[in-house]
Amino acid sequence: MAPPDLADILRHIGREEPLSGTVRAFPGLTREDLGRLLEAAATQLATRAPEPPATEPRRPSRTVPPLPQESPAPGAVPSSLKLFSDGAARGNPGPAGAGAVLMDAEGRVVARLGRFLGTQTNNYAEYMGLLLGLKHARSLGVKELEVLADSELLIRQLQGRYQVKSPTLRPLYEEASELLEQFSRVKLTHVPREKNKAADEMSNRAIDERM
After folding, report:
1. Pairing label, strands 94-103, 80-89
2. Which end of the chain lies in a sparser environment, N or C, as judged by fewer CB atoms within 10 Å?
3. Is the pLDDT of residue 158 over 70?
4. Do 95 and 191 have their domain in common?
5. Is 75 inside a domain boundary?
6. In whole angstroms, what is the distance from residue 171 CA to residue 178 CA?
7. E-assigned strands of the chain?
8. Are 98 and 115 within 8 A, CB to CB?
9. Number of structural domains, the chain?
10. Are 205 and 97 in contact (CB under 8 A)?
11. Does 64 fall in a domain?
12. Do 147 and 190 reside in the same domain of the chain?
């Protein structure tokens, strides 16, 4: 029986394995990034021309395919996007995760983001989900942004309608406010939980997979 093709092995790993350990080991690397990296490596192997037989044992190659860019090249995404953000804490405080999803006007997903936060409160996780999305939107060169979240506290605080009394949330609020000022136009919208399912899924996935 012929040995399995290395390209097929890499594709199988990318499709079937959770890869959560590798994602945890490299901060900023998402499950989607790692899947694309494995697919790129598999494609490179599959299309590489056969090499002539070596006259002596070859040393292992040190060439590693570069990681895919976390952000598309400037101009590759619309200048206006919607940011759905959410946070989850199982226990409040308890294991917590932040989630964010960026979409264009037609509802096409531009980016899905998640981050495990350790033991935190739900409100902390809500702010971290927002910050995760805001930073990624800035890296994409987005100019106009609509922020949608099911946390009334978060939206009302950012609108100036609620005070930020928590010393834990205060620095997160200030960082979010500074990031929001970097966009030319921002709209803050409170939505019901059922309309924020994509971001909720990412925040819970971040807990489950320790992203």
Report:
1. antiparallel
2. N
3. yes
4. yes
5. no
6. 11
7. 80-89, 94-103, 109-120, 144-149, 185-190
8. yes
9. 2
10. yes
11. no
12. yes
Domain-located, residue 20:
yes
* Amino acid 133: pLDDT: 98
Q: Are residues 43 and 109 in the same domain?
A: no
Residue 77 or 149, more confident: 149
How far, in Å, CA of 143 to CA of 16, rounded? 37
Q: What residues are paired with 119 via a beta bridge?
A: 95
CATH number at residue 172: 3.30.420.10
Give the C-alpha distances (Å, rounded to integers) separating 18 from 29, 30, 197, 205. 14, 11, 21, 11
What phi, psi does 49 have (nearest 5°)? -65, 145
Segment 36-52 shows an average pLDDT of 66
Can you give the pLDDT at residue 46?
A: 67
Give dist(CA 125, CA 98) in Å, integer: 5
Same domain, yes or no, for 36 and 86?
A: no
User: What are 199's two structure tokens?
Assistant: 């971001």
Residue 197: both structure tokens together: 């399912």
Domain assignment of residue 74, yes or no? no
Sign of CA dihedral 160, 191, 144, 111: positive
Q: Is 188 buried (19+), middle (13-18) or exposed (0-12) by CB count in 10 A?
A: middle
Range of the domain at 29: 6-47
**Which is more confidently placed, 175 or 58?**
175
Euclidean distance between CA atoms 134 and 173, whole angstroms: 12
- Copy the structure tokens of residue 40: 């790129």
Residues 39 and 142 both lie in one domain? no
Residues 111 and 190 in one domain: yes
